[in-house]
Design a protein that fits this description.
The structure holds two protein chains of two kinds. By secondary structure, chain A is mainly α. Chain A contains 22 helices and two strands. Classes of the chains: A mainly alpha, B mainly alpha.
C-alpha cells in the first residue's frame, strides 16, 4: 500500500489550490458578458494562437491519455504506440477542416458542430443526431478523467471517495462561474507541469535504468514491434486503421470543436494545427514511460501490488514515478496528471452543455429563449453532466466507462459525413446522411458487441483476406456508402433544400 | 484576382498526403533496427514523423499565406 508522503502531498495540494484560485479568477480575464452563450461557452471567441495552443493541448491530451497510453505499452507493447501516428495525422484533418469550421461558425454565430449541420442542411433531425452523438460520446470520456485522477490520488496514499468529490465540486463551481475561461487559464499551468514532468522523466529515468537499450531489453521479444511486417496481418492493419480512425474522429469530438471555435481567428486555428504536434512528441515520450515501468520492474514490487490490484496496468506510471522521483517531484508530477484531468473535464462538460442547450433545449423546447436564459441553462447543464460522471465512477462503473468510451469513438466518427464533408459540399442529402449515420452506428456497435465491448478491432472477411480493421473505420465506410448512394437517389427527386451558409462564409 | 477561391485546392495541398503514407504504411517501420541511442526504429521513426508532419503542415501554411 502506498503510504502518505507529506512532501508529495503538500506540493500536490499547493498546486491544486493554485489552479482553483486561478479558475475562479478566470471569470475576470478578458471580461465579457457571461450571460451570453458564446461568452460563457466559447470564451467570447477571443483566444489568440498561444492561448488556443495551451487550451487545445490541455484539452486533447487528457489525464486518461497520460495514464492509459503507457499502460497499454506496459501490457501490450508496440501496439500501444498507435497513439503517436494518430496524434500526427490528426492534425492534417484539423488543418483541412477546422479553419473552415471556425470561419462559418464565426460568420453565423454557431457554437457547436450541430449548429453548423442545422444551418448547412436545414435539418433539425440530422442536427439532433449529431448533437446526441456528441453528448453520448463525451460523457464517458469525462468519467475517464475521474479514473485518471483516482489513480494518482491512490498513488499519493489518499483513499476514499471524498477527495475525488471535493475536486469535482470545486471544478464544477469554477466552470459554472467562469465558463471556458477557467480551463483555458488552468491549461497553461497544466501544460507547463506536464512538460516539466515528461522532460525530467525521459532524462532521469533512462539514466537510472541504464539507457534505452536496457529498457527495451525488458520488453518481451514479440512485443518490441508488431507481429510481422506484412501489411495484411493482424498487427499492422489494425494498427494503421486504429491510428487513422482515431485521427479522423479527434476533431469531431465536441470538446475539440469548442476549443477550435473559441479561437480569435482563422489563422490562429491554422497555426495551431502546425504547432500542436509538439504535444504529440510529448505523448510519444509519455508512451515510452510504460516501457520504462516495465524495465523498472514495478509490478513485482510489494509496495505497488495494491495499486496494480485496484487499477491494473493504469498504475504503471504512478508506480514508476513513486519509485524513481523524490517526494516533491512526485507531488508535482501527480498534480500535472490530476490538473490534466480537470482541464478536459471542464471543456467536455461545457461542450456537452452547449450541445444540449443549443441543439436540444432551444431547438425543441424553447425556441424563443433569451440569450441570458440560454447561457443560464448551459451553466446548469454543465453541473449535471459532471455530477453524472462522478456518480458513474463512484458507483464503480469504471470498466463500463472504458467500454463506453471505446464505443464513443465508433459513434462520433459517424458524424464525419455531416460535419467534415458538410464543410466542403452540400451535395449530400440530409435524409441520406441521417440513414447513413444510423447504419454506421448500428454496424459499429454490433462489431464492438461481437467482442463483448472489449476490443474495437473487428475482423472483416474479404475474399481470401482476413482484415482486422478498427470498427470505427469500417462502419464509417458503410455510412459513407449509404450516404452517397441515397443522396444520388434523393437529389434526383423533386424537393427543396435550404442552406443558411454561403460559400464565402467558409473562407472569411 | 487569379480566379482561385480562397481556401480552395492548390497543388501544394498534395503534400498533405505524405504524412499518411509515412505513418500508416506499417511495413516501412515495423522493425527494431537501426536503433537510436537504444530506442528501436519502430519508436523513433514514428516520433520523427510527428515532427515531419508538423514541418509539412508548416510548409503548406506558409504557401497558403500568400493567397
Amino acid at each position: 500500500m502506498a503510504h502518505l508522503d507529506p512532501v508529495a502531498l503538500g506540493v500536490f495540494i499547493a498546486l491544486f489550490l493554485f489552479v482553483t484560485v486561478l479558475g475562479f479568477f478566470a471569470s475576470r480575464w478578458r471580461r465579457g458578458d457571461l450571460s451570453q452563450l458564446s461568452e460563457w461557452g466559447l470564451g467570447g471567441r477571443r483566444f489568440g494562437s498561444v492561448v488556443t495552443w495551451f487550451l487545445l493541448g490541455g484539452d486533447l491530451y487528457t489525464a486518461y491519455t497520460f495514464v492509459a497510453v503507457p499502460a497499454l505499452m506496459f501490457g501490450a507493447g508496440a501496439v500501444g504506440f498507435f497513439a503517436v501516428p494518430y496524434a500526427a495525422v490528426g492534425y492534417v484533418f484539423m488543418f483541412l477542416a477546422c479553419p473552415r469550421m471556425w470561419s462559418v461558425a464565426r460568420a453565423k454565430g454557431y457554437v457547436t458542430g450541430a449548429d453548423f449541420v442545422r444551418g448547412r442542411f436545414g435539418s433539425r433531425s440530422l442536427a439532433l443526431a449529431v448533437a446526441l452523438t456528441g453528448i453520448v460520446a463525451t460523457m464517458p470520456y469525462i468519467a475517464l478523467q475521474l479514473v485518471g485522477m483516482e489513480v494518482v490520488l491512490a498513488g499519493l496514499g489518499i483513499h476514499g471517495e471524498w477527495p475525488l468529490v471535493i475536486a469535482f465540486v470545486i471544478l464544477a463551481a469554477y466552470t459554472y462561474a467562469s465558463g471556458l475561461r477557467a480551463p483555458a487559464m488552468i491549461a497553461v499551468v497544466k501544460d507547463l507541469l506536464i512538460y516539466a514532468t515528461v522532460i525530467a522523466a525521459v532524462i532521469i529515468i533512462p539514466a537510472e535504468l541504464g539507457g534505452f537499450g536496457k529498457i527495451f531489453a525488458a520488453v518481451a521479444p514479440g512485443k518490441v514491434t508488431l507481429p510481422t511486417d506484412a501489411f495484411v496481418n493482424p498487427g499492422a492493419f489494425s494498427y494503421a486503421t486504429l491510428a487513422l480512425g482515431s485521427a479522423m474522429a479527434l476533431f469531431l469530438y465536441p470538446h475539440a470543436a469548442t476549443g477550435v471555435m473559441s479561437s480569435s481567428s482563422r489563422h490562429a486555428v491554422k497555426r495551431n494545427a502546425v504547432a500542436l504536434p509538439a504535444y504529440s512528441i510529448v505523448l510519444g515520450l509519455v508512451a515510452l514511460l510504460g516501457t520504462m515501468a516495465l524495465a523498472a520492474g514495478v509490478k513485482a514490487m510489494p509496495q505497488y501490488a495494491d495499486g496494480f490490484a485496484r487499477f491494473g496496468n493504469n498504475y504503471a506510471v504512478p508506480a514508476l514515478f513513486l519509485q524513481m522521483f523524490p517526494g516533491w517531484f512526485v507531488g508535482l508530477a501527480f498534480a500535472a496528471i490530476a490538473i490534466g484531468a480537470l482541464v478536459p473535464a471542464a471543456i467536455m462538460s461545457i461542450a456537452c452543455a452547449n450541445l444540449f442547450t443549443r441543439n436540444i433545449y432551444r431547438e425543441f423546447f424553447k425556441p424563443d429563449c433569451t440569450p441570458a436564459h440560454e447561457s443560464q441553462v448551459a451553466k446548469i447543464v454543465s453541473l449535471f453532466v459532471k455530477a453524472g460522471a462522478l456518480v458513474f465512477v463512484l458507483e464503480g462503473q469504471a470498466t463500463t466507462a472504458v467500454e463506453l468510451q471505446l464505443l464513443g469513438g465508433i459513434w462520433i466518427i459517424q458524424t464525419l459525413p455531416s460535419v467534415f464533408l458538410g464543410l466542403y459540399t452540400r451535395w449530400l442529402h440530409p435524409r441520406a446522411l441521417l440513414i447513413g449515420w444510423m447504419a454506421g452506428i448500428l454496424a459499429g456497435t454490433a462489431m464492438a458487441a461481437a467482442s463483448g465491448f472489449k476490443a474495437s478491432v473487428y475482423v472483416l472477411h474479404l475474399g481470401a483476406f482476413d482484415l482486422p480493421c478498427y470498427a470505427a473505420l469500417s462502419s464509417l465506410i458503410l455510412n459513407l456508402a449509404v450516404s452517397v448512394a441515397l443522396s444520388a437517389v434523393l437529389n434526383a427527386m423533386p424537393g427543396t433544400r435550404s442552406d443558411a451558409t454561403l460559400a464565402e462564409d467558409y473562407a472569411a | 484576382m487569379d480566379g482561385r477561391q480562397k481556401g480552395g485546392f492548390r497543388l501544394v495541398h498534395l503534400l498533405l498526403i505524405v504524412p499518411f503514407i509515412g505513418t500508416l504504411w506499417v511495413p516501412f517501420y515495423n522493425r527494431a533496427l537501426p536503433d537510436l541511442a537504444g530506442i528501436p526504429f519502430f519508436y523513433w521513426y514514428q516520433i520523427l514523423w510527428v515532427a515531419l508532419t508538423a514541418l509539412i503542415l508548416f510548409i503548406v501554411y506558409v504557401a497558403e499565406g500568400r493567397e
